[in-house]
Write a structure and sequence with these properties.
Layout: E1 11-16, H1 29-36, E2 40-45, H2 50-61, E3 65-69, H3 72-83, E4 93-96, H4 104-108, H5 115-127, E5 134-145, E6 149-153, E7 155-159, H6 160-169, H7 176-188, H8 195-200, E8 204-210, E9 213-220, E10 222-226, E11 249-254, H9 259-262, H10 266-270, E12 280-285, E13 287-292, E14 296-298, E15 301-303, E16 309-323
Parallel strand pairs: 1-2, 1-3, 3-4
Antiparallel strand pairs: 5-6, 5-16, 7-10, 7-14, 8-9, 8-13, 10-11, 11-12, 13-16, 14-15
Amino acid sequence: MDSNRDSFLPVGIITNVHSRRNRTGRYNADRLGAILAGRGLVRESRHPDEIEKILDEFADRGVKVIGVNGGDGTWGMLLDRLLERLPPDQLPAFLALRGGTMNMVANAVGIRGNPATILSRFLAALSGRRHSPALVPQKTLKVDVNGERSLHGFVWAAGMAYSFLKEYYARAPSSPWNAFWTTVTLIAGAPLPIERFRKAWEMVQAKITVDGSTVADGPVRIAVAAVFEKLVLWFAPFGRGVGTPDDGFGFMLNCMPSFHQVLPRRWHLSRGKYERPGRHSSYLAREVVFTSSSGWLLDGEIFEPGSAEDVTISRGPVVRLVSLPAR
């Protein structure tokens, strides 16, 4: 971990103004700029194409820490573009400003509060005499699609997770409360003969291999790969953990054919406390290949169903996240 204060300045803040929390009016660009007070710059992105210009400006200014003010999906978009420019060991560090709804990256390093509060704490820690920010290594996922394009992120999922997220996005406004309510509603509605609930629990056809061994070839209820122990709400499904920065990543697979098998075990399943070969398993994996025409998601970004795809998930580069001292 690095405690040299000079290695943290200048700061470049990039805001995805379309992320769900920033759209609700809790974001103020002028306030962030005033807090920085000449120690960096604040830029807004309204379209993915604008990120390139912003990163050019950050490079010209010698930005050492990028403050990410957007949802979890913003991180993957930013990582993809940075890794096209720089080798992993030359990437700037990242400060999570919690501009999204779930904010799994921020949660991983224990950062709480709104963007303005987090930025103020970070700068105050830099000027303090005793406790300065630290840099924490964080592995990522690399997701190759048909060998044609590579994406980067932290959490990949298919099956029921994809369906639940689409249902959540259909709600307005987006919030942790609506995420909780959507999940509870879909679980409670599973036995009901209603199309909305039937589609949410529908299994997908897929072939899945883990480190070269086939673990599923048929109906799959949910598959999740992640580098974080805890994901959203109470969901911490990796019974074998997610490993160290030098290991692979956590992978969970459920193929239970009936929701009547899932519901009584939902707590143990969601906490990584249930294993049954052929029904529910977790792995510490180095490579997962998912072959299916169903949709999937990466850090909250939805990739719609299409023709059969080979999605290969492996461990991506290690990045550095800023961790703030305890208050």
